[in-house]
Amino acid sequence: MTLPPYEQLPDHDRPPDAEPVPRVRRARTTPPWWFALPALLLFAFVVLVPSVRGVYYAFTDWDGLDPHFSFVGLDNFSDMFRDPDATQAIWHTLLIAVSITVVQNAVGLLLALGVNTAIKSRNVVRVFLFAPAVITLIVTAYLWRNLLGPDGAVNSLLDAVGLDGWRQDWLGSPQLALWAVVGVIVWQFAGYSMVIFLAGLQSVPKEVHEAAAIDGAGAVRRFWSVTRPLLAPALTINLMLSIIGGIKLFDQVYALTGGGPGHATDTISTLIYKDAFTLGEFGYSIALAVVLTIIVAVVSTGQYVVLSRNERAAS
Q1: Structural domain includes residue 150
Q2: Which PROSITE patterns does this chain map to (predicted)?
Q3: Does residue 278 belong to any structural domain of this protein?
Q4: What is the mean pLDDT of residues 286-312?
């Protein structure tokens, strides 16, 4: 028997119909793009416009002063690759960048592993090792210029310990000057790399190390199989910073050696300075700057792609 609708009993097995949810207008969570317009205009005025104008000057024979100059096309770039000083500077730039990247990060990682301990003086040691990174670049360069001089503290120390045969003109020798510059830069910034690696080490869960130790893994095995993959983000940051900084290097080289002896330590940056402000070849120097920009862009992009792929594979 079917009851009329107004006499039917409620069906307790059927869930009640859901009440309609009132539609609420979604609030804007991001600011309008025009808030960034003043900063973008300032950036364009200070950076983009001079950069584009500078690229144009790279195709001219402008001397930096005369308002009258000629368009020479690719002559500056062709002269660059026929100039032995320019090709040598490009080679020195790449050699310094690779050397700094490898040595600085290796030393920084070893220091980070050393200070990532529970000893009471660990904070003092960390501050002591990081201190050179906060010293002004020029101050550091002039300090080491005196230390590495013919009568500097390094040679005096060698005399004091009976190694007077090792005395060298560290910054005046064409064979040693480049490596002396690399050593100074590594001394100053190894602590900076150490801090980044230390942050990565402290983010590794202790439980993972304890589990690996229980499974019988030694210290080297735990580092290679547990710590190293988890350090991939810190390694990516350190490699990017050191390779880009090495390619753009100018302050320390110019203060330590001025690009000498001869052109033994010239980099692209020091050669740009000399050609522009000493020889008055602004068009040629800007062409060198364009090549430097391309090198930085290509190397940093390629490095980022490779390191990001390795970082995803490690995780």
Answers
A1: yes
A2: ABC_TM1 (PS50928)
A3: yes
A4: 86
Tens of pLDDT, residues 240-256: 999 999 999 999 999 99
- DSSP letter at 224 equals I
Domain range holding 139?
Answer: 69-314
* Contact between 193 and 104 (Cβ < 8 Å): yes
Asked whether residue 7 carries a pLDDT value surpassing 80, the answer given is: no
Residue labelled with tokens 């097995």: 13
Q: Output the six-digit token pair for 259.
A: 């690009």
State the SS3 of 58-127: CCECCCCCCCCCCECCCHHHHHHHHCHHHHHHHHHHHHHHHHHHHHHHHHHHHHHHHHCCCCCCHHHHHH
Sequence-ordered list of residues with C-beta below 8 angstroms from that of 308, at least 6 positions apart, any chain: 236
| 262 dihedral zone (left: phi>0; alpha: psi -120 to 50; beta) | left
DSSP string, 171-220: TT-TTTHHHHHHHHHHHHHHHHHHHHHHHHHHTS-HHHHHHHHHTT--HH
Q: CB-based contacts of 303: which residues, under 8 Å, 6+ apart?
A: 239, 240, 243
Rounded CA separation 57/52 (Å): 9
Answer yes or no: is pLDDT of 12 > 60. no
Q: Which two tokens stand for residue 104?
A: 């600085």
Residue 64's region, left for phi above 0, alpha for psi from -120 to 50, else beta, is: left
Q: 239 with 291: CB under 8 angstroms?
A: no
Chain Cα centroid distance, residue 9:
76
- CATH no. for residue 264? 1.10.3720.10
Q: Retrieve residue 279's tokens.
A: 């020889």
Q: Six-digit token pair at 253?
A: 């080289």
Distance, in Å, from the CA atom of 184 to the CA atom of 146, rounded to the nearest integer, reads 12
- Using CA atoms, how far apart are residues 214 and 194, in angstroms rounded to an integer? 28
